[in-house]
Amino acid sequence: MTYRYVTGIFKSDSLMTIGLDFHLKNINYGGKKISLQIWDFAGESRFRFLLPGYIIGASGGIFMYDITRYSSFKNLDQWLNVISQGLKDDYNIIPILMVGGKADLSPKRTVNKEEAIEMAKSRDFIGYTECSSKSGEM
């Protein structure tokens, strides 16, 4: 999803992030030019140890899961614990958005949308949305 957002191109042969990837994207928001530094962390548990060192000073976060893989959704609280360790006092300050990926595969959904919305609300996230790298839906 990150590659699609940064480049506007869908790669059907893209591989899962190993460890982490870094991207820059310049956007205009409210008449201001903003430079985003995007750190894309692998979702596998074996890479969790990397996260705390890279999120210090973060201005926001996106929790993305695959709507067709319930396991990616149910691991959210484990990731929140890792983030709270890295951010310490800033943990409750940064805005976090929850995103369900692969919206184009909605018929194969294993995570109920209402359940995801409720989880986002219960964790005080700024919102919930779904997207698709393939279709470009955001």
From TrEMBL:
Name the UniProt key words of this record, in alphabetical order.
GTP-binding, Nucleotide-binding
Q: Does the keyword GTP-binding apply?
A: yes
Cleaved signal peptide residues: none
A Pfam family cross-referenced in the UniProt record is Ras
The record's section on InterPro entries has:
P-loop_NTPase, Rab, Small_GTPase
GO MF annotations, alphabetized: GTP binding; GTPase activity
Quote the protein name from its UniProt record: GTP-binding protein
Q: Native species of this protein?
A: marine sediment metagenome
